Amino acid sequence: MDMTNKDYDKLVKARAQSSPTWKNVIWAFLVGGTICTIGQVLLKAYQAAGLDEETAGTAVSVTLVLAAALLTGLGIFDNLAKYAGAGTLVPITGFANAMVSPALEFKSEGLITGTAVKLFTVAGPVLTFGISASVIYGLILCLLQ
Asked: How many other CB atoms are found less than 10 A from the CB of residue 78?
């Protein structure tokens, strides 16, 4: 079948389903807001338990990453993301999901060559950029002082 680009565009537009934009926006707002609210409640709970603000913030980050990784492993996070869309991409939970999902997908290839390798497919570039950026920032700071 030989098609021009215009014919293909017409075919795609005819078969594409429109997205319920406002429904998606509301779900994303509610779920993203709920995740952030849970983070704030955890922060206050950790502070009430005696942690200072910085340590409590670290504890909240670890808790949210662990929760998102567990929910991804149990298949709950992906089901939630079907409805919430971008609301689940709150940076810390979205990153945990992005790390665990490929690892689960390749677990049949083995613990090291499947799961472990895929965990660092996403984390590797992020860690490399983060470490490189902090070294450059530190050098610039040293030069300016």
From this structure: 14
The residue behind tokens 């509301």 is 26
* 16: Cβ contacts below 8 Å, ≥ 6 apart: none
Under 8 Å between Cβ of 21 and 30: no
Letter string b/e over residues 36-61, b meaning 16 or more CB atoms within 10 A of that residue's CB? eebbeebbeebbeeebeeeebbebbb
Mean pLDDT, the chain cut into blocks of 10 residues (145 residues total): 83 82 89 93 97 95 91 87 82 78 72 68 75 91 92
Task: State the virtual CA torsion across 41, 42, 45, 46 in degrees, nearest 10.
Answer: -150
Half-sphere CA count of 140, side-chain side, radius 13 A: 6
- Dihedral (CA of 54, 66, 84, 86) sign: positive
Domain ranges in the chain are 20-144
Contacts of 93 (CB under 8 A, 6+ apart): 35, 64, 65, 67, 68, 77
Contacts of 98 (CB under 8 A, 6+ apart): 122
- End-to-end Cα distance, the chain: 67
